[in-house]
Amino acid sequence: MKKEFFLFGSCLFLFILHQLLEKCFHVRIEKVDNYLDALVCLPIILQLIVWERRVLLKDAYYRLPLLHIAGYFVLLSILGELLFPALSNRFTADGWDVLCYAAGTFLFIGVNSYHRIY
Known about the structure:
Mean pLDDT: 95
Order of helices and strands: HHHH
Largest sheet: none
Distance between the termini: 24 Å
Strand content: under 5%
Low-confidence stretches: none
Radius of gyration: 15 Å
Helix content: over 70%
């Protein structure tokens, strides 16, 4: 459980720090501006979903099934890289973001010790 708190806290800290630097202090670091949010968003979102389910289901050891994790990855990829850019010019479709979503997803899976059960 401590590893999942560390991952969540680290990702949330990086996200907030980046937003403050970018929006409040106008600090621009191109690669960070382009890809950090995509990298940390799924570990944050997935951990919040796990906590919500643990409360609602009253199961302190609940873990998201891998199929659900994959579904959230696909949903975010479609929304973030296809739908939003089609609806607004404020969004840009970028295949590298999908790789960042995937990396964040695999990071979440690795930290939460998912193993294939036979």
